[in-house]
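Hey all, sorry for the wall of text incoming. These are the two entities for the joint prediction.
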Amino acid sequence: KNQVEQSPQSLIILEGKNCTLQCNYTVSPFSNLRWYKQDTGRGPVSLTIMTFSENTKSNGRYTATLDADTKQSSLHITASQLSDSASYICVVSAGYGGSQGNLIFGKGTKLSVKP
Amino acid sequence: EPEVTQTPSHQVTQMGQEVILRCVPISNHLYFYWYRQILGQKVEFLVSFYNNEISEKSEIFDDQFSVERPDGSNFTLKIRSTKLEDSAMYFCASRAVNTEAFFGQGTRLTVV
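and here's what came out:
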């Protein structure tokens, strides 16, 4: 069964600190992996998207890694800011081509950045 | 920057009533989607729509649900007879051929 598991469920860090969020997936066939940021009560906003051949991708203070062999991904946030407080969702796309219906969502990691 | 817009932002309805959730996708996008997120749970796929027809749907999307693109700009989700368990955030998303999906801000549906 296609699954995406994220850890930790929640995380509290102090402003300015770094953190790393984890994602393990069991999805076949794998198409790509995305990290989304979702503020409370808002729609998910894309941070990064990686295909099978990409190991790392950065977007400002966000750096995502992908190990397709172990089926693991991480999202590293550098120098956290209060505005980073949100849920971070790992989403894996299964299937071929662009079938968006095969997006498998993780439950997300709820990050709280404290002053 | 173009964005997917959804209306209303919050809808309260009585159990058994019909609701229509509206979405205006990004104008040059061709693929449209509805997702829902029950409070505290993960986002779940409902349906995808392309070329004026449903291309894929989940088991959640039963006969009580329907989608329509009535006028070439709006994309609607109709729930015929709402149940308490339909209470959730409903997200619309759209994409072009070679882009990822862009999500709207969601409609919070509360069934009382």
